[in-house]
Design goal:
The protein is of the alpha+beta class and 240 residues long. The protein contains three helices and twelve strands. It has a single domain, classed as STM4215-like.
Length: 240
Amino acid sequence: MGLFDALKTYLAGADFFGRANPRGKERTLPAYDARTHALTRFADFLAALEWSRPGNIGAPPVSYVIPREDIHLDQPDDPTSLNFPSIAFMPARGQHDQYVLGPSRVIEESYGVYGRCTVLLLQGEYIEPFMVEAWGSHIADRRSILAGIEAVLRMNQRSNALQLSLPDYYDRVASFSLLDSQYIDDPDVVRGRRRGQVALELRVPEVVLVDAVTMRPRLCVEVVDELRQDAASTCKHPGP
């Protein structure tokens, strides 16, 4: 059963966003939420950076990159098999801030942008304080990753947070702000495994694309010929 049919069958009152005449194409439930889109974009951003760690005494710093496949959106299944240096995002409990008690707000400027006769609804904002965990073989690796993340998060001239556009999520903007950081030394240090953590706060709007048909007013004019005592009427649509 499709989404529209399921809502019509089971929803009390059958009142849901996206009911329009003519009916648009059938839509499936989303495969990714706003959080996943934001973290994916953040991982792509980190993979595009050129990191820097100290070189030998008297030598310039050494530049390196962290491949995208070594930046994990969730905790790795087996942390002992990571390629160093690597980064992982450790999830936390998120909050869905819905702003008001009433219905979602229509983003009027999005009408027709992402599909004919469609519009975006702003459902709220997702907020999550999550942890970025960095792994390296040496102290210098860990130190350079934490220093690099702390630096890029505060390079926005207009905000003390990193703001990334989300082209795969209706061009919304996700915000990442710095909370705190910690260097961690545990028994794995003797095996050349150094790690550190940076706590961030993610904020990203939650939207949904629904069908929307604008009103099409119709103008009717009746013309009466007083001599012939008959009338003619015509109706026109003032637009396409």
